[in-house]
Design goal:
Number of strands: 7
Distance between the termini: 26 Å
Strand content: 5-15%
Structural class: alpha/beta
Mean pLDDT: 87
Largest sheet: 5 strands, mixed
Order of helices and strands: HHEEEHEEEEHHHHHHHHH
């Protein structure tokens, strides 16, 4: 499944004030700006999802993490992001300012239900870590509309409304709210992200009958999303190609060994080896075959390898 969190992150970057105001309604949009630092984390930077807020009550940072997939290690990852941010602020001689971390889940199946890390050494509690969790389907949509939090408009079809709502009616009302946005480019981006998110819970035919496909295709955010997905798919294809190459080499090596050791009588075994696609199993079969003294022993080893594949 494509990573639906990517277009949402782009929208957060475009309209950060709306997202900060959702967490802190008293915050003015002009107090929110992207967090800037010369520091680059060694693993994978999340500083582009961080915003600094100059509030009358004090300076703080906000880290958003839209979740478009299930991740059992999410708490550890969020702790790493906090560490990256503080490492950046310490390098910038800004100390360790307060950080509000918020994870937005769009669908229940992506919520791993574990959002706390604790650790102890004897009686000493060494870690007590958590973050704010926003389950979009539990949040009422009306406040978003009333407060004109435009950056969150794509979430409206996923949000809580009246009991027994008709999907078509929900989508229609959400689309009408977006069409009130005067900025044409922003409107396209909002509709594109709304279509992507709504496709996770509504029938694709219904979504595309109401949000015109050409409107989605014109969106800069959608185009960037497709580009990233294509690049990732090509990278996966190259990795799979390399793995397939290793499997084929292992198959060739085993078949060559069988042919030299047992001659034409091993033809049937060689065909079975060609059907084995696990590099780990093939490596194990090759190692065991060196100890095989008879064709029958080789048959037993390959049969065991096939059984491991089927487990």
């Amino acid at each position: 499944m494509p990573k639906i969190d990517i277009p949402v992150k782009r929208l957060v970057q475009r309209r950060p004030g709306d997202w900060v105001k959702y967490l802190n309604p008293g915050c003015a949009e002009d107090r929110v700006r992207p967090f800037k630092s010369e520091y680059t984390p060694r693993v994978e930077s999340r500083l582009d999802n961080v915003f600094e807020v100059e509030d009358p009550g004090g300076y703080y940072l906000v880290n958003f993490e839209p979740m478009g997939y299930h991740d059992v290690a999410l708490p550890a990852r969020m702790m790493r992001y906090r560490s990256d941010i503080w490492e950046a602020t310490l390098n910038d001689r800004k100390g360790t300012p307060p950080i509000v971390q918020a994870v937005f889940f769009f669908y229940p199946e992506h919520d791993n239900k574990n959002h706390r890390l604790t650790d102890r050494w004897g009686e000493l509690k060494t870690v007590e870590f958590t973050y704010r969790v926003v389950r979009v389907w539990e949040q009422p949509r009306q406040p978003v509309i009333e407060q004109r939090l435009v950056g969150l408009y794509p979430l409206l079809p996923l949000m809580k409304g009246e009991a027994g709502e008709d999907p078509k009616q929900v989508l229609q009302q959400s689309i009408e709210v977006v069409r009130e946005v005067e900025d044409r480019s922003l409107q396209q981006d909002l509709l594109a992200v709304m279509g992507i998110l709504a496709g996770g819970i509504y029938a694709a035919e219904l979504v595309y009958s109401m949000i015109r496909r050409e409107m989605i295709l014109e969106s800069p955010i959608y185009q960037e999303w497709v580009k990233e997905e294509r690049a990732e798919a090509e990278a996966r294809g190259r990795a799979e190609g390399r793995a397939e190459g290793k499997v084929e080499k292992a198959q060739d090596a085993i078949c060559k060994y069988l042919r030299r050791r047992f001659g034409d009588a091993s033809a049937g075994l060689q065909q079975k080896v060609r059907e084995m696609t696990s590099l780990e199993v093939l490596d194990g079969v090759m190692e065991e075959l060196f100890a095989a003294n008879t064709l029958e022993e080789a048959q037993a080893i390959i049969r065991d390898g096939i059984e491991r594949l089927m487990q």
